[in-house]
Amino acid sequence: MSETPSVLYAKDVVTVVSEDIVTKLKSMAVAVPLKRARLCLHLSKDDTVQEMVIVLHRDTYIRPHRHEGKTESFHMIEGEVLIGFFDDVGELQQTVRLSASGQGSFLYRLSASLWHTVVPLTEFAVFHEVTTGPFSASEFPVWEPENRPEAIQRFKERVIQQ
Fold it and tell me: How does DSSP assign the chain, residue by residue?
C-alpha cells in the first residue's frame, strides 16, 4: 500500500482490510485538519467501481454535496452516522441514521443526485463506501454554511436535531 497523510491506496489485486488498517486510518484521521482518512480499494481513479473504507472523526465536516449521474452506498463497520438530505434551497428533507451496533439500519444506497451531508455521531465512524466511477468531483451548493467553525457547528446541529 502507498499513502498520503489521509489516504492509503491499495496496490495489489487482492486487498484485505484488517483491524490494524482501521486503527491506522483512525490515527491518520486525527492527525490531519479535515479529521478523516480513507483506504482506496480500487486501483485507479478511472475504475468503474470505486470502493473505499472511510474513517470520519467526530470533528470532521463533510460539505453538503451531490454527485451527478452516480450512485453511492455505505455499509457501516464501526460507529454511527447521520446522513442529511436537502432540497435545492437547503431545507433539510430527510435524515438517515446508520449504525454498526446492530441497532437499526447499517446500510444505505443513494441512487439519485440529491444534496447530502454525513455527520458522525460517535468519536469515529467507519464505513465501506461504494460508488460508481470513474472519479469526478462533487458539486457543492450555494446555500452551504460559511467556512467558519461556529457556522459549521450550527449546520451539523441542525441536521442532528431534525
Answer: -EE-SSEEE--SSS----HHHHHHHHHHHHHSTT-EEEEE-SS-TT-SEEEEEEEEETT-----BB-TT--EEEEEEESEEEEEEE-TT--EEEEEEEESSSSS--EEEE-S--EEEEEE-SSEEEEEEEEESS--PPB--TTSPPSSHHHHHHHHHHHHH-
Q: Are 145 and 154 in contact (CB under 8 A)?
A: yes
Segment 32-58 shows an average pLDDT of 95
- How confident is the model over 53-102, as pLDDT tens digits? 999 999 999 999 999 999 999 999 999 999 999 999 999 999 999 999 88
pLDDT at 3 over 90: no
The three state secondary structure string of 43-84 is CCCCCCEEEEEEEEECCCCCCCEECCCCCEEEEEEECEEEEE
- The residue ranking higher by pLDDT, 136 or 52, is 52
CATH number at residue 46: 2.60.120.10
Q: In which domain, by residue range, is 150 found?
A: 2-161
Count of structural domains within the chain: 1
> Distance between the two ends of the chain, CA-based, in angstroms?
40
